[in-house]
Amino acid sequence: MRSAGFTMLLACTVIAGVTGCTDGATPTTTPSSATPAVSPGAGSPSAGNPGAAPTGNSAPATVPTDTPIAACAPGQVDVTATGLGAAMSHHSITLTFSIANPTQACTLKGYPGLDLTTSTGEVVHAERTTSGYMSPQPTGDPEPTVVVKSGHPAEAIAESVACGVYGKPDPKVVKTQVTPPNSTDTRVVDEALDTCNLKIHPVTA
Prior knowledge:
single chain; Immunoglobulin-like; mainly beta; globular; five-stranded mixed beta sheet; disordered N terminus
């Protein structure tokens, strides 16, 4: 018995730096290193709220895509005119309303203004009609709201009839003025029409 106790004491002495011994001669294990507790850092979900979003760099707010586009203001559109030719004494031109600043957009709806000034100073105003001989009756909204933006202008057709058909002389037109719908921004264009039965139709896409 004494020999066994001495042997056990010697064994504990040899490995004391590694395992250690208890009074009951049962070795105990000492952990080599402790694992530090991980605490949540900045921008990480908190322990109390696992679903919390990071508080660091926040994403910018989303801009609504359904923001209404305002009506075209004076100076926001350019106006040009192109002749469409004649048929059965009817003449017509296409008025084009294009955005002046390609980074912007605006809306047009309704009838442009169209006035012809003759060499005698007479001013002839175009009658507003949804359609005519050179412009068929629209199948959808007769006065659509058109978004004018880069590459997507609005157009309107104007037409007239040679006054000779009515047994009248055709006065010389010296100026053609066009005003975009719901605006006072009058422009002068190069094309001209007859002064008889002068009509203007609504803008379309």
